[in-house]
């Protein structure tokens, strides 16, 4: 029995097998316990002999199990350590880092450019009142030009702003006609436009406003020309087309020539060769008056540009929807290293 038990201990290759051996030989139902239990039935002479023998066997088996257990544990630890070895010489895995969205970068670039021309940067709410979005801009309730900007209404009086122009009215109202103002305002705007390659129902605008004594149309042209040259390079052309906005008189729209040049020459990237990027004009006297300025004393210009279209032109992006569908492979191309 002893030999058999010791052999089993020897053969055990895992802690589980070893435990099975312990239960089988030393457990309550094991043969050694049986022998010890049966001592009562033995004669007086036999008892000490058998007892000593059984205890000796039990001791030896237990000892063998303990030492085997220590051996298995050491081997397992060894194995685990070998498996978990860290090779400190391997190059690290780079942690992916974020970066500004292309539109954010463009807006910041435009901000810098206008700050350089003395404009300050302001903000206004995206959820706007009908008054500031339309009425204060010379667009009363049933004015047909409201159709130019199909609107997401929240209630009769509250809406998602359709342009950044309400910030003009807000800013002038705050100043109450007491001094000049020269500001730009970037922000998101919303329209019930059908999404296509150049239209999105949510897009970005940057408003510009300069009100002072003796501001003229030529000042507007000069500022826009400077902006276009700095943004796109000296070789790009701009054109101003007469247009209509109820809050400016006269009104213009500015297009930029739309060319893609590569090693084989240049081709126009839109059928007409021009892309419209902003609307502008001289602030309507009625708008100045509503905001508390005396139009006899003050005049001003305003413009509203679309940075989405500007980014498309500058980086040759063929579809405005790329900016909003957030495919990380698209966005990553524009992250600065
Ligand atoms: C306006 O929103 C006027 N508030 C601009 C303005 C301000 C005129 C101050 C005069 C004085 P318009 O609807 O044309 O105008 O939009 C201005 C620019 O926003 C456009 O030139 C275009 O670049 C961009 N834009 C307009 N609709 C969309 C659209 N659905 N998706 C992307 N860009 C658009």
Automatic annotation (TrEMBL):
It is found in: Cytoplasm. Residues 102-313 form the Aminoacyl-transfer RNA synthetases class-II family profile domain. GO terms for molecular function: ATP binding; catalytic activity, acting on a protein; magnesium ion binding; phenylalanine-tRNA ligase activity; transferase activity; tRNA binding. The keyword Amino-acid biosynthesis does not apply. The keyword Cell membrane does not apply. It is an enzyme of class 6 (ligase). It catalyses: tRNA(Phe) + L-phenylalanine + ATP = L-phenylalanyl-tRNA(Phe) + AMP + diphosphate + H(+). Keywords: Aminoacyl-tRNA synthetase, ATP-binding, Cytoplasm, Ligase, Magnesium, Metal-binding, Nucleotide-binding, Protein biosynthesis. Its EC number is 6.1.1.20. One of its GO terms (biological process) is phenylalanyl-tRNA aminoacylation. Belongs to the class-II aminoacyl-tRNA synthetase family. Phe-tRNA synthetase alpha subunit type 1 subfamily. PANTHER family: PHENYLALANINE--TRNA LIGASE, MITOCHONDRIAL (PTHR11538:SF41), PHENYLALANYL-TRNA SYNTHETASE (PTHR11538). Tetramer of two alpha and two beta subunits. This is Phenylalanine--tRNA ligase alpha subunit. It comes from Gracilibacillus kekensis.
């Amino acid at each position: 029995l002893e030999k058999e038990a010791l052999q089993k201990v020897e053969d055990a290759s895992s802690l589980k097998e070893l435990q099975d051996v312990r239960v089988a030989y030393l457990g309550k139902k094991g043969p050694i316990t049986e022998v010890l239990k049966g001592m009562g039935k033995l004669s007086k002479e036999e008892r000490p002999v058998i007892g000593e023998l059984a205890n000796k066997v039990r001791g030896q088996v237990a000892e063998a199990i303990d030492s085997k257990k220590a051996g298995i544990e050491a081997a397992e630890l060894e194995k685990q350590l070998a498996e978990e070895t860290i090779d400190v010489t391997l190059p690290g895995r780079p942690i992916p880092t974020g970066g500004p969205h292309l539109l954010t970068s463009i807006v910041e670039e435009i901000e810098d450019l206008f700050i350089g021309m003395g404009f300050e940067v302001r903000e206004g709410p995206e959820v706007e009142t009908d008054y500031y979005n339309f009425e204060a801009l010379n667009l009363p309730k049933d004015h047909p030009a409201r159709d130019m900007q199909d609107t997401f209404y929240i209630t009769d009086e509250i809406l998602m702003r359709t342009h950044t122009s309400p910030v003009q009215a807000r800013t002038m109202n705050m100043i109450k006609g007491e001094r000049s103002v020269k500001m730009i305002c970037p922000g998101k705007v919303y329209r019930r436009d059908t999404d296509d390659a150049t239209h999105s129902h949510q897009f970005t605008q940057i408003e510009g406003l300069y009100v002072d004594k003796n501001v003229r149309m030529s000042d507007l042209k000069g500022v826009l020309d400077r902006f276009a040259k700095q943004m796109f390079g000296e070789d790009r052309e701009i054109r101003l087309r007469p247009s209509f906005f109820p809050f400016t008189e006269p009104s213009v729209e500015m297009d930029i020539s739309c060319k893609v040049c590569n090693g084989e020459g240049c081709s126009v990237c839109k059928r007409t060769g021009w892309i419209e990027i902003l609307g502008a004009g001289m602030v309507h006297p009625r708008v100045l008056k509503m905001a508390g300025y005396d139009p006899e004393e003050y005049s001003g210009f305003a413009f509203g540009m679309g940075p989405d279209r500007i980014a498309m032109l500058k980086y040759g992006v063929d579809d405005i929807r790329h900016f909003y569908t957030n495919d990380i492979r698209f966005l990553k191309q524009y992250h600065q290293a």
